[in-house]
Amino acid sequence: MSDVLVVDGLDVTFDRHRVLADLSLRVRAGEILGVIGETGSGKTTLARAVVGAAPVRAGRITFDGTDLTALRGPALRAWRRTGQVQYVFQDPLRALDPQHTVARIVAEGLTVAGVLDRTAIDAKVTAALVQVGLDPALADRLPGQISGGQRQRVLLARAVALDPRLLLCDEPVSALDASNRNHVLRLLADLRDRAGVTVVVISHDLSSLAGIADRVAVLYGGRLVEQGPIERVLSEPRHPYTALLTASAPSVRREHPIPARALRPAPEHTPAAAFGAGACPYAPRCPFATPACVTAPPTTGDAWQVACHHAGAWRAQLAAGAR
Ligand SMILES: Nc1ncnc2c1ncn2[C@@H]1O[C@H](COP(=O)(O)OP(=O)(O)OP(=O)(O)O)[C@@H](O)[C@H]1O
Fold it and tell me: Is residue 314 part of a domain?
C-alpha cells in the first residue's frame, strides 16, 4: 500500500509553546490509522495541521503528492473545495450551527463546492444520512432536537457526503454509549472496506482502536514515540510509554503483560529537572531513563518505528530486575 498522507518533521508552535515537535508519520491508502496519546499530547493539533487550521512553523504535510503546507490563498481554497480531506470535529454540539437543520448541515460542503444542483444535493444528503445509520426523516430537525449519538453521526454524514479520500476523526466515539460507539466504529471500518476511504482516528481509548485500526501512532509530548501495526504494537510495545498505555487498558490483549507499576519510576528516580528542553520528552516519567536520555532519541525502524534510546534493552532490564 502506498502512503497517501506523509507528515514530515512537523513543528507547530502556539505562543512559543512547541505543541508538535519534529513529528513524522505516514498514513497508507485505504487503512485506518489510530492516533493515541494522553490529553495535551498534540493529537487534535496534528489533525488540524493537516486541514490547514494550525500554525505550522516547520515541516511538510503531503497528501497524494500535493504539499498542503505550501498552499495559500486561492490555491488553498480550491483544494478545500475538492473535499478530499475531511476533519470530523471532536465536539458535535460546538461544531454544528444550532440554527441550521440537519439537511442544511450535511449539504454544507456540497453547496460550497457548487458542482451539483439542488436535486442532486438532496439525494446526496439522504444517501449520506442512510450511510451513517440515520433516518432521513431527521433532515428537518435542528441539532438541539436530536441525541448526542445522532449529532456525532450528522458530523460524519457531512464529511461522508463529500466522498472524501481521507477522513480525520477526532475522538469520534468518546461521548457515545456502547451501542452508538460500536455503530460508529463499524461505519468507519465499512468506509475503509467498501469505499477505500483512508481514515485517521484520534482517540485516547485504546480498546476502541484495537478493534478497527490497522496501524497505530503513539504521541507523547508532541512527538511520535511509536508507530506500527496495531496488533504487534499493542502486544509487544517497544516504547515504555506505549507499554504503560497498554498496561492500563485491561481489554487489550497482550502476550506478555507487564504490570503498570513496573513501568512507573521509583521515587528515587532522577528528578525531572535533570532533563532539559532537548531531552527525550518521556524521560522524566520513564523508569528506564539514563543520562543518554538528555538528548531526544532518534526514530528507528521502518514499518514499525520507535523513538527510545533503550527500545532494545528495557524489557531485558525489567526481566532481570524481576528475578
Ligand atoms: N489554539 C491554541 N492556542 C494555544 N495553545 C493551544 C491551542 N490549541 C492547542 N493548544 C495546546 O496544545 C497542546 C496540545 O493540544 P491538543 O488539543 O492538540 O492535544 P490532544 O492530544 O488532542 O488533547 P485532547 O485529548 O485533550 O484533545 C495543549 O497543551 C493545548 O493547550
Answer: yes
45 CA closest ligand 1 atom index: 18
Distances 45 to 42, 49, 153, 198 between C-alpha atoms, Å: 5, 6, 22, 19
Print the domain residue range for 251.
242-322
- The tally of domains found in the chain comes to 2
- Please list every protein residue whose CB sits less than 6 Å from any atom of ligand 1: 14-15, 19, 37, 39-45, 204
List the residue whose alpha carbon is closest to atom 28 of ligand 1.
Answer: 40
Q: Which atom of ligand 1 is nearest to the CA of 40?
A: 19
pTM for the whole structure: 0.93
Q: Is the ipTM of this complex over 0.85?
A: yes
Residue 293 in domain: yes
Distance from the Cα of residue 194 to its chain's centroid? 21
Q: What one-character DSSP code corresponds to residue 98?
A: T
List the residue whose alpha carbon is closest to atom 5 of ligand 1.
14
Instruction: Report yes or no on 269 lying in a domain.
Output: yes
Which of helix, strand or coil describes residue 224?
A: strand
Give per-10-residue mean pLDDT for the chain (323 aa): 93 93 95 95 96 94 95 90 91 85 94 88 96 93 92 92 95 84 90 94 89 96 96 94 89 76 78 79 92 93 95 88 62
